[in-house]
Each structure stands twice: as structure tokens, then as C-alpha cells.
Amino acid sequence: MILYPFEDIHLDVGKIAMWRLQSYTAFAGTWLSDYVENKLGGFITDEQIKEEKVKPDCALIGQDGNIFNLLGIASHTLKQNGMADEAKEMCSRVTSSESYCEALNIIGEYVNITDGSEQSDDIDEDFNEGQAMKL
Length: 135
Description:
This protein folds into 2 domains: 13-43, no CATH class; 50-134, no CATH class. 56% of the residues lie in helices and 4% in strands. It is built from 7 helices and 2 strands, in the order H-H-H-E-H-H-H-E-H. Helix 4 (67-80) packs antiparallel against helix 5 (84-95). The termini are far apart. Residues 116-135 are annotated as: Disordered.
């Protein structure tokens, strides 16, 4: 079958076309690409892969509304969830945005903005302990 990559191989397209015509009934007259497109809804694109990534919850509602504060919290959340590259990309996009609303929308593309009521108080305690250690 033509599922394997053929590097440095000359394929006789005429023979492949004849095989397709002769195997019409066995494979319902479709190539793999036809089958994927027509029966499976198409190949996965890079945009779909980005959309499928799970966005971590980030408690931004009720925080200081300074965009740099919100950006820092969202960036920290991404890094905690193993998404350091996304955090860097988000920071770059936010700092080059032209408005506060645009910056918030960009942050929302990377994290699920929540009010934090779903998170436990342990997170606040850990944060406060860390702050006390710095003093």
C-alpha cells in the first residue's frame, strides 16, 4: 500500500492509477487521502492541535487588575502545568498588544479564567508562606 514514505524512489503513477481503477470495488474507489477527507472529516491541522490543548484553570477574577499582574499569574499557571513555551509566547503577545481588552483576550486563549472559588485554600497558604520566607 502507499502508506509508507518513498524517499528516492520513482513511482509509476500510471500503474498506481491502474491499480486504483482495478481495486475500485475492494476499497470503494477511494485513496487513503479521500477516505480521511470524506469519511473522517479531514487531516488534523496545526490549529486544531492548538485548540485541543487543555487550558489550565487560572484564578484571575478578583485579582489586582493590572495587566502585568494578571500576566504574571497566568504565566506562572502555565509554567506549573508544563507549558513554559506557551507562557513565553503569551507574554510576548500580551506585551505587544494594543489595548487592555486585547491583552485579556490573549490571556484567555492560553488559560481558563476563573474566580478561584474552585481552588482550595492550600494554594493561598502556600503563596503566603512563600511571601513570608522572602521577608
